[in-house]
Structures are given as structure tokens and as C-alpha cells.
Amino acid sequence: MSRSERPSEDSLIARFFAPIAGEGGLGLKDDAARLTPTPSHDLVLTTDALVERVHFLPEDAPGSIARKALGVNVSDLAAKGADPAGFLLSLALPDSWTESWLADFAVGLGQASRDFSCPLLGGDTVKARGALTLSVTAVGQVPTGRMVQRTTAQAGDLVCVTGIIGDAALGLKLRAAPAWSNDLSPDEKAHLADRYLHPQPRYRLAAALRDHASAAMDVSDGLAGDLAKMMRASGVSAVVEADRVPLSAAVAKAVQTSSDLLDVALTGGDDYEILCTVPEKALDSFRQEADRIGIPLSVIGRVVSGHDRPVFRMNGLERRYDVGSYQHF
Amino acid sequence: MSRSERPSEDSLIARFFAPIAGEGGLGLKDDAARLTPTPSHDLVLTTDALVERVHFLPEDAPGSIARKALGVNVSDLAAKGADPAGFLLSLALPDSWTESWLADFAVGLGQASRDFSCPLLGGDTVKARGALTLSVTAVGQVPTGRMVQRTTAQAGDLVCVTGIIGDAALGLKLRAAPAWSNDLSPDEKAHLADRYLHPQPRYRLAAALRDHASAAMDVSDGLAGDLAKMMRASGVSAVVEADRVPLSAAVAKAVQTSSDLLDVALTGGDDYEILCTVPEKALDSFRQEADRIGIPLSVIGRVVSGHDRPVFRMNGLERRYDVGSYQHF
């Protein structure tokens, strides 16, 4: 299809995005969306951008890219104890876009939007000068004053993490077919690859987090670095028992083959699990809630006073990772 | 400065953006921003992306780019009758960025944020693969149910526009030093150039719009095309007296030199004025409000029933412009 036969922005929106929009999106026919907040609630707002070859790869399925763009933002909301209310999408499309790519992208976005109960409210579509670039702004709600912050961890609290750590980082590395991957079964490889492509934001944990956690954030830039950020923001430190960090069978096997992969698992990005601190007396109730909704929870350490980087204890040794070992710049 | 000496995203945020953040931004230390909505108000949300060489030029001052990115979003809020509550910025920076560019960008953004009473709440900074790409999501508030829509113009209403039309479109064309520009004085050229670079969102008109306008949108893609969009969305048409469309002395002079520039003025983009429809009986009150806050207002035509594209009457002729004469794709 030649450039001049391309649909206008309006027809593109009407065809691909209006069908997946929520009620507040007003059919995507207006300049803006409307959201009536729940009374006695605060809004929580977050924005995350994804760039081709930085945050995803050109060969990734369009629906997976869409799901990831929304998922990483919903993950931020979840960590703040916020229930999703909707999102806006800004999409800079390179000249090489095709209708079939965009159709698949919209289907994936619509599916993710339904899965996460986070309706599309609006957006903007522009021409990129370079790689495909997406920016999602997600809006969530918490009862007034109940947003879970990053700055409020207390010495003595337990450090908890949901799900499994390190799968996504190894899933990304797997694409280069490293030697260690030869020992993994096809299922194990598929598991790791899927975890990189398809983050599972823990939005169902939001209510339990605001009821029980003293501080929380999502693990997007690696467990070690994100824990260090949260402890620094709270003016405390932490001690982590590395063997309590939940690893999948695939990662555990890879670490046996190549022990430096443990560092990759602990410092790699894209986990999109929830890292939180919980007062000891709240742990049982928090765990019951997590169990009830089927989200695995591991206690991996404890908040301590001090300003040093968190310590990871492993095999009788103590290890402190550089803060920001993973950087966007 | 070599790549490896570049500050991390966290230090970049702390240095350039945290100082200009509003209270809801929580010092930009958290994953998300918090906004406590005014009771009995709806939120209005809009997002607009700007791409280098599409929406601005590499040689534009960084502060001007920042102001435009925020301004075009605040303009959308204003057209919906919404008072600004805050914004989030997603910034994809190409590898060639410099600290001085970013410092100037942040100063311009902070100034615009204060001018428009629209505080920075949060953002994301990522590495671009290609041109500088910015996406702003702005949040505004209106009393519940009072958002001014695009779909509610009524036959018989007057068609009004604020300020001056066509300056920005000619200001952009001026950069190629066309023959017609030889007749303009340096001041006239500077005026047109400035109007392209520095849109003046009409945020102070928001309250008057929700009190008096039956429908509204901002003029970003050209008066003729945007009017056609609003009429179509409302299921009506319009008749415009072209000689009532407010032009600056500079544009009027340019049109005298080259008559086809009138089409450029009427169909070009980047005006960021407000186009609205007002019931005849509400006009006096609306004009009084606009006068009081110093925003010029012109009645340029009338909404009529029908589904044709709006007619522009000029010199005894009738002209219908193609809808979407300006397209992002």
C-alpha cells in the first residue's frame, strides 16, 4: 500500500482503537477523555515509554508489545495499591507500519485492557522519525491518602516479593542462544522467553498492598537495584537472604550451569513483580490475601537501619550490588 | 562528555525535573504521582506527542519545544472547559542530547508549567532510537458533567473563534524564506515565527466555555478542517464568512501579495485558538467574560443543519475545504 493511500489519523483511530475504547473515551471522537473519579479517592498517575530495540525487539509480536506497554504501567499502579481506572496511549509509528501490524497491536491492546480492567481512554498517533515509540499513561484510584509509597519502609519490616525473579532477564539473554541455554528443555526456554515478553502485572494485589504494606514498588530495573532505591528513598537499608529469592526451575538450572547468572537474575530487569515491605505483625494477613488471589509471596529479608546499600547474603558471603546497575541511560 | 559519564536517569530527574515538579509529583521519587481530585469534579485527560522534524525543528530553542509540548495539551484542556491540574512527560532522548540542552528544556518547561498553572506530576525518560520524541499527558478538572464536548453543536448556534488564525501556518512557511515574505517587515516576520513556536493556550477561557459554549475544540489542524470535524461529530454543518476570520496585519499583508495564502491561513495548523459554538442568546455574556480576561473573540459564522462540509463564503463565492486537508499521516 503506497504512502498516499494510507488512512488518515482519524480513520485509523476509528477503525483500530475506537472499538477497544472504554466509556470515558467518548468513542475517541473528542480531544480529551473524561473520567469521573470515585468519591473519596485519590488518583494515581504513571507514565512509561517503550522504544523498539531498547524495551522490545522488532520481531516481537505486535500484540505482545501492546500488552507489555500497558502491563508495565499497570504494574506501577498495582505497586502503589491503586486499582486501574484507564489509560492513554501515545504511539509514534515509523513510516514502515502496516495495517496488519496495527490491527494485531490493537487486538493485543484490547485483550490486555480487558485482562487488567484498564480501559483505553484516549491517545495520540504521530509519525515517528526513527523507531516505533510508545508511551502509556495509566490512571488508577486509591481511597484518599492510601497510596502506597516508596519512602515509608521502616527498620524491622519484612522484605517481600511476589512471584518469581530473574526469568525475564534470562529470557532476554536467551535470544542470543548462549551456551548455558543448551542445558534447558524447550519448555524451560519457552517459559523464560514468555516471561520477558509478557509481564503479568500484579494488579489483583493492590488492595492487599494498601492494607498491609508499609512501602512498595514494582521490580522493573532489577531486584537488587530497585530494593536499593526503595531503601534509600526510605532512609533505611536491608539484609536479603539470596537463597530465599524465588527462582524458577529454569533459572535455578541455568545458575547451576553458569553461577554468574544469579547476578543476572538479581540485577536484570523486566520482572514486574511487586517488591514491598510489611510489618511483621501484618505478614499473616497479607499472606492470606495473596494466597486467596493466587499470587505467590516470598519473604526474602528484613529492613534494617542504616544508609548502606542492601546486603545479599549467599553461601556465607555478603554481597552489595551497585545501585543502578541497570540504567536507562 | 562521553557516554559513560552520562548521569543516570535518576540523577537526571533529580537534577533537572524534580526542582520544577508540583506537590503531587512527590519529588519525582516514586513510581507514580498522586492527585487528589476536587470533590464533585470530573477529570479531563488528553495526550499529545511531538516529534522532531514533524512538530518542531532541531534548531528550535529547547525551552520553546518544552513550552509547545505542554501548551498544545493545555490548549486541549481549555477547549473542554477544564482547568489544568497537572501533567506527565514522557521524553525519548536521542544519544546526542547534552546537559545544556536538557537544562534549557527543563527551565522552559518549568516556566510554561507556572504560566499555565499546570504542575509537573511525573514522567519517564528513555533512550530514543531516532529523533527526539516527547509525549505529554495533561489532566484537567471540570465540575461533574460540565466537560464541553465536540459533538454537541446545535443548528442556529454562532461559530466563534478566539484570537488570530493563520499566523502559525505562515510562521512555519516563513522558514523557507518564500518570495511573499519579502514584503513583510522584520517585526511582522518575527510575529509570525513566534506564533508558530509559542502557542498561547487559552486556558483562562475554560470557565467561560463551560458556562456558555454548546461545543468546542482547539484549532490545531487548521480552522477549516477542525470546524468540519466538529460539525461532523455534531451531525450538523456551518456557514462561515471568510472575511470575519480574524487575521493579523502580517497575514493580511501576505494574503494581498499572494492570495492563495488565505487557504494556508484557513487550513494550516498550529493555531491553538479555541473554536466553539455558542447559542445566540449566550453570546453577550460569553463576550463579556472573554473581554474581561482579555481574550479576543470573533463570530465567524453560524451552525446550520445538514451534513455537508462547512461553507466558507468569500467575495461572493462559496468554498468547501476538504476535511482533513491537514493529516498527521
Number-wise, the strands of chain A total 12
Shape of chain A: globular
* Distance from first to last alpha carbon of chain A: 37 Å
Structural class of chain A: alpha+beta
Biggest interface in this structure?
Answer: A-B, 73 and 73 residues
Helix content of chain A: 25-40%
Strand order of the largest sheet of chain A: 7-9-6-10-8-11-12
Mean pLDDT of chain A, rounded to whole units? 91
What is the CATH top level name of the largest domain in chain A? Alpha Beta
Sketch the major β-sheet of chain A.
Answer: 7 strands, mixed
Question: CATH architecture of the largest domain in chain A, please?
Answer: Alpha-Beta Complex
Organism (chains A, B): Microvirga lupini
Function (chains A, B): Catalyzes the ATP-dependent phosphorylation of thiamine-monophosphate (TMP) to form thiamine-pyrophosphate (TPP), the active form of vitamin B1.
EC number (chains A, B): 2.7.4.16
Pfam family, one (chains A, B): AIRS
